[in-house]
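call fold(seq) -> tokens
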Amino acid sequence: MKKLAIFLLLNLFLSNMFAQQSADTLKTKTNLKIATQVIPDRTDRNNNFYDNEETYVLPMQELIITGEIENPGKVDFSKLTKRSVIVKEALLKHDTSNQFIGAYRYDGYSLFDILNDRILKKKNATDFRPIIDLFVEIENNRGEKVLLSWGEIYYPNFLHNVIIATEVMRIVPSKTKDLWPLPTESKLIVGQDLISERNISSPVKITIISYDRSYKVNRDINPLVSAQVNVYSGENKIDSFSSIPGSLQSETLHTIFYGKGRGIHSTQPFSGVYLKEYLAGKIKFNQKNLRTGLVVCAGIDGYRSVYTFSEIMNRSDQAEIMLVPCPEEKDGGKFRIFPSCDFFSDRAVKALSEIRFENK
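ret:
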């Protein structure tokens, strides 16, 4: 018993010593409150790399939801479950290079949950009922705005990856002990972004919007084939193609192709080129386009889906959107869009006739 007591006292002493050393190492010029309900594991008692440091509370702003919904109003965070996202943040530097900011675990409330009980009231529902042309505009208390497609929130293979962060923890390298700068306000975190330009601070307003360009819907086209794809930037036609440029590398992605309505379509792989490789050089990769750029893919029958520029051009997960040639297809040829990032196939446009980029 005496040996056990000595062992326990020694263990407690060492734990306190390591904790004090870590606290001294992590001293920072901040007035942020420490989240006392989250106890850091500074002696690696478990296998979790993402609980080793202090968690800091980020002051929240009131968040309002408005737009094309029947029940606009303030978000009641007390009813929501907290989620965690781990990210390596970097920002553009002069639109030509990247500047690493730091690695963090953010805790907060996912947009999936925040928007879950909002009843959609699409302005264009009479002409186009599918919800794949929806996007959300998120604004902060400084007037900065970013866009997210509805697909990024509700269709991805991995849910709850976009959150309003209310707490933050540095992910500190065990050898270098680099102390990444701490944010000081609540923050939108888009976990799948490689460059973190959409991670704006203090979001206060979310607006749900349907894409407002009109397309003629014709479901009686037979055969459903579009021989050419026209490409626009705003109202300006910048390209058209009837075959995939030979300079682009062909890729093959294996998939289970599953629709929200009709279930399983196929288990066959898709071969084509990454849409980001085709658009690179045609559309500038800059802060404005990453934050508020949309890319709309439309079929000859009027079916269309909305993507953000960032989700096509700026992914950290390599779950790419693919441009697929299918010249032999009589039901959906000559080109298709395949989003490998999505669980459902609904944003996969067939008989592709138009790709249009614009800033909102």
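The chain has two domains: 28-210, 224-359.
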